[in-house]
Amino acid sequence: MQIGLIGCGNMARALARGWGRPLLCADPVADRASALAAEVGGEALATNAEVAERAELVVLCHKPAQLEDVAREIAPGARAVASILAAVPLEALRDAYPERPVYRFIPSLPVEVRQGAVVQAADPFSASEGAGQDAAIDAAVSELFAELGTLVVLPDALLDVAMGLMSCAPAYVALVAEAQVDAGVRRGIPAAQGAELVVQTLAGTAELLRRRGHDMVAVRREVTSPGGLTARGLDALERAGLRSAFSEALDAVLSDEAP
Fold it and tell me: Which of 10, 41, 80, 219 has the largest count of CB atoms under 10 Å?
């Protein structure tokens, strides 16, 4: 399937690197499209319309506010459209691209190394349960995004909540890792070695949680002896408001108010 990217920002680059195949690219900053195309062995095109005419699937990676402007440019030539635009529901995509298959995904940055989480909006109008060409396209698009990591299907109304959990999470995890390293530095561990310890522990813990069936409580209890060092550390984190901080972060992401 020939993929075309409309927009070549950070998430588009992560998708392209994860797929690792030649793509068609267009971006208002021509050098950015050229650089990405060169990296994946693809082709940078001068206009969005050219991408739509040549691609079997157009992936919208532009700014959400540009939905209607871009649609006017590419809808006539687009055969199928997948969107990674935040806060743009399936209904808006169908309105912008009538009579064409449309799909909504929210990826996370680790798709670049095929270890990301990707959430797909369940579409009640999808042909996936039927047969024929439309069902084949639905399956092919889902399989394409499933290449990038764990694909989870949720109702469209929950995609923005999912975005707050997993699309924003790499920044949160990086901040947590940075804070842990800084704590170690304060006690004498060099930053480089501290980073190796913390990052590998995070990676290993993620794999352990998968193998334990995502049972966070079980893993936490395996590490925590009654009255032990880990118990004291966890108590300090709870008193510092760790849980409420993440809850407030999700509320802030979903808030309509600008900071």
Answer: 80
